[in-house]
């Protein structure tokens, strides 16, 4: 039962994160949905194995991010730099959505320790987080608020100007801060989620600012 719930919740997370990434960067989903589901299925098993049967469970999320960057680069032919930006944005947004969901659940009177021990509540958290990402994705598409600066060819020339450097720095610094917090607060999941979630939430408006700036610069 725990395996089924974990796998189902993880697949939901991966699929909705891809939907969000592709909506944010104006990539069409038509024709690649089956590929996304297969990737989600395979990555969910990787997540299960690394979280339950290895000593690197604390770093599993970051290993998955690294693999997703490689997969997006290789399978969808997105330049490696922009694959990092896309997956970093998806990773941060998912974590922020999960943090908000957990905060709301705690407000209902459910203790954090109970949330982390109950597979059904964990699955519900994953499902609600996924719904948040899908809703935001739908809103982005309806309002036509996505970004155009990610090229569809891995052969595209990438200029490391100020804006590109800023985008990289925002994503990289927030992930590094969260990773360091995970190491420093190992064994204290509640504090880690607070630190990482706050870091990611604060990084989102900065990322959006530089992404809009990047679009404007490329349009000139």
Write the H/E string, N to C: HHHHHHHH
- The number of distinct β-strands equals 0
* Strand portion: under 5%
Radius of gyration: 17 Å
Spatial separation of the terminal alpha carbons: 55 Å
Structural class: mainly alpha
Number of helical segments?
8
Largest sheet: none
Shape: globular
Taking all residues together, what is the mean pLDDT? 91
Helix content: over 70%
Low-confidence stretches: none
Report on the architecture of this protein.
It is built from 8 helices and no strands. The mean pLDDT is 91. 78% of the residues lie in helices and 0% in strands. Helix 1 packs parallel to helix 6 (119-143), helix 2 packs antiparallel against helix 3 (60-75) and helix 3 (60-75) crosses helix 4. The radius of gyration is 17 Å and the shape is globular. With 220 residues, the protein is mainly α. Keywords: Membrane, Transmembrane, Transmembrane helix. The chain crosses the membrane at residues 6-25, 32-50, 62-82, 94-115, 165-186, 192-210.
